[in-house]
Amino acid sequence: MAAVCVDPEYFDVGDDGRLTIVPGSADLRQIVYFKDPGNDTFEKADYPWLARVFVQVQAAGGGAAGAKASANQLVAHPGGTGGGYSERLIEASALGASETVIVGAGGTAGTPTVDGGNGGNSSFGGLCTANGGFGGQVVMTSGSAPTCFSGVAGPLAGIGDVSQGGGASGGSIRLDGGQGQSGPGGEARLGHGGWQRASSGAGGGARGFGGGAGGALARDGDSVNGTPGNDGIVIVWLFA
Question: What is the mean pLDDT of residues 109-123?
Fold first, then answer.
């Protein structure tokens, strides 16, 4: 029988003669993406070679309010904020047999006189969590006098080796009954906020994951709905 020399730092020869990789000595093996809003499960037994995971958790962005203006008047609202983000390196030994994965849904779009909805939280078990963005609010009443409103502060940081809150949304301004600008949506670690507008209509939709929606603007009798925020995502990098 031929003899085989192996580096014991990376390989092990079992009693049955099978050559196996020493757990924790190899590199990235697989990436699992959880994109659909709602609850899912990560099963450790599905990856018997697993040594550790690197988890990225992005919460959802907030939706924007709608806007309604009377004739010869203007209304402009701030956008929704971005969702928070966290990441963490976790040893396989610290994982449960299964970990619940939650992907936050983007905040709902408000109707013409209703606030935008908050974005949902995202998490990987209780080990890595991120807080959803806040919805843009109905703050400006219909009128023609100059006025302005601040944007919405983003959510606080969650749990992780690195954790940050979501980006604040931009404020809105009215110069007169025909000119103004809504606020942009807040930024997220894995996405961008929607753009603001200076013409009548819904604010811009976010890009990527977790961005907040841009604010709506209405003038001269217009009535418009807001824009939804973007969903979150959970990404699990698997290392052997």
Answer: 99
Task: Report the C-alpha gap between 186 and 166 in whole angstroms.
Answer: 7
pLDDT average, residue stretch 64-88: 99
- Picking from 34, 161, 59, 46, the residue whose alpha carbon sits closest to that of residue 98 is 46
**E strands of the chain, at which residues?**
11-13, 19-21, 28-34, 38-43, 52-58, 67-68, 74-76, 85-91, 98-103, 122-124, 128-130, 147-149, 162-164, 172-174, 180-181, 191-192, 207-208, 217-219, 223-224, 233-239
- Residue 1: predicted pLDDT: 46
Domain ranges of the chain: 28-239
Query: Mind listing the pLDDT tens digit for each residue in 19-75?
Result: 666 655 669 999 999 999 999 999 999 999 999 999 999 999 999 999 999 999 999
Task: Please give the Cα distance from 149 to 171 (Å, whole number).
Answer: 5
- 46 token code pair: 């599905």
Q: Which residues are CB-neighbours of 38 under 8 A, at least 6 positions away?
A: 102, 103, 105
- The whole-model pTM stands at 0.89
User: Considering only 19-23, 99-103, 172-176, 182-186, which range has the smallest mean pLDDT?
Assistant: 19-23
Rounded CA gap, 14 and 180, in Å? Answer: 73
- Which residues are registered as beta bridge partners of 117? none
Neighbour count for residue 223 (Cβ, 10 Å): 15
| Distances, alpha carbon 75 to alpha carbons 2, 64, 160, 201, 205, in Å | 82, 13, 40, 11, 19
Residue 170 CA to residue 84 CA, distance in Å, equals: 17
Give dist(CA 40, CA 31) in Å, integer: 16
